[in-house]
């Protein structure tokens, strides 16, 4: 299963775990309530995995590419990492599948608290359109991830505040009906 926890308020290195003391875990069920969904897959066979194929077909994830995030492998690494860690939303779901390494996705819960989701090899996650979130590597500084998308990908991120978007209002509304 996936591990998630409420974050502390410390402004130290974003790559550190930032757990509260004592740790305050967040369950998969709580993540589902804010529209975050999760699968565990076998990343060793991602090129021919029928389970991944099925998810892609069922959910219409026609597009995919693979991004390697590491100082030596990603052009403009520092800028991109900084950008990924700005609190933002997208007009579409963000779907990521970790093939190697590790990373953190931080999402805001219904009370605007940060939840940190620890992603490791084999974790596939979907963040709903309109949720405020951000991304960082951990201290190992390396991840290889598959990016999935319904149709032609749109990577545009809107930094907070972006409350005027209809998709944001739709998302906020959806939190009330769960
Ligand atoms: C995003 O929009 O938050 C990202 O694309 C994060 C990096 S992809 C592993
Ligand atoms: Ni994003």
TrEMBL record:
Any Gene Ontology biological process: L-methionine salvage from methylthioadenosine
Subcellular location: Cytoplasm; Nucleus; Cell membrane
Catalytic activity: 1,2-dihydroxy-5-(methylsulfanyl)pent-1-en-3-one + O2 = 3-(methylsulfanyl)propanoate + CO + formate + 2 H(+); 1,2-dihydroxy-5-(methylsulfanyl)pent-1-en-3-one + O2 = 4-methylsulfanyl-2-oxobutanoate + formate + 2 H(+)
Keyword match Transcription regulation: no
HAMAP family for the chain: Salvage_MtnD_euk
UniProt membrane topology term: Peripheral membrane protein
EC id: 1.13.11.53, 1.13.11.54
Co-factor binding comment: Binds either 1 Fe or Ni cation per monomer. Iron-binding promotes an acireductone dioxygenase reaction producing 2-keto-4-methylthiobutyrate, while nickel-binding promotes an acireductone dioxygenase reaction producing 3-(methylsulfanyl)propanoate.
Gene3D superfamilies reported for this sequence: Jelly Rolls
InterPro entries noted in UniProt: ARD, ARD_euk, RmlC-like_jellyroll, RmlC_Cupin_sf
Pathway the protein acts in: Amino-acid biosynthesis; L-methionine biosynthesis via salvage pathway; L-methionine from S-methyl-5-thio-alpha-D-ribose 1-phosphate: step 5/6
Keyword Amino-acid biosynthesis part of the UniProt annotation: yes
Origin species: Astyanax mexicanus
Family named by the database record: Belongs to the acireductone dioxygenase (ARD) family.
Highest taxon of source: Eukaryota
Residues involved in Fe(2+) binding: 88, 90, 94, 133
Pfam families found in the cross-reference section: ARD
Cofactor(s) it depends on: Ni(2+); Fe(2+)
Subunit structure, interactors included: Monomer.
Keywords: Amino-acid biosynthesis, Cell membrane, Cytoplasm, Dioxygenase, Iron, Membrane, Metal-binding, Methionine biosynthesis, Nickel, Nucleus, Oxidoreductase
GO molecular function list: acireductone dioxygenase (Ni2+-requiring) activity; acireductone dioxygenase [iron(II)-requiring] activity; iron ion binding; nickel cation binding
Gene Ontology, cellular component aspect: cytoplasm; nucleus; plasma membrane
Name recorded for this polypeptide: Acireductone dioxygenase
Summary of the function given for this chain in its UniProt record: Catalyzes 2 different reactions between oxygen and the acireductone 1,2-dihydroxy-3-keto-5-methylthiopentene (DHK-MTPene) depending upon the metal bound in the active site. Fe-containing acireductone dioxygenase (Fe-ARD) produces formate and 2-keto-4-methylthiobutyrate (KMTB), the alpha-ketoacid precursor of methionine in the methionine recycle pathway. Ni-containing acireductone dioxygenase (Ni-ARD) produces methylthiopropionate, carbon monoxide and formate, and does not lie on the methionine recycle pathway.
């Amino acid at each position: 299963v996936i591990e998630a926890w409420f974050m502390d308020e410390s402004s130290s290195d974003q790559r550190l775990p930032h757990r509260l003391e004592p740790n305050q875990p967040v369950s998969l069920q709580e993540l589902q309530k804010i529209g975050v969904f999760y699968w565990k897959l076998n990343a060793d066979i991602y090129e021919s995995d029928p389970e991944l194929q099925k998810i892609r077909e069922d959910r219409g994830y026609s597009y995919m590419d693979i991004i390697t995030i590491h100082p030596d492998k990603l052009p403009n690494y520092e800028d991109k990492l900084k950008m990924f860690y700005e609190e933002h939303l997208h007009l579409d779901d963000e779907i990521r599948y970790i093939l190697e390494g590790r990373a953190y996705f931080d999402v805001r819960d219904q009370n605007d608290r940060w939840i940190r989701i620890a992603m490791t090899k084999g974790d596939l996650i979907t963040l709903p359109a309109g949720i405020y979130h951000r991304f960082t590597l951990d201290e190992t500084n390396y991840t290889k991830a598959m990016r999935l998308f319904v149709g032609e990908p749109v990577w545009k991120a809107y930094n907070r505040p972006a409350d005027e978007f209809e998709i944001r209002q739709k998302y906020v509304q959806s939190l009330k009906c769960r």
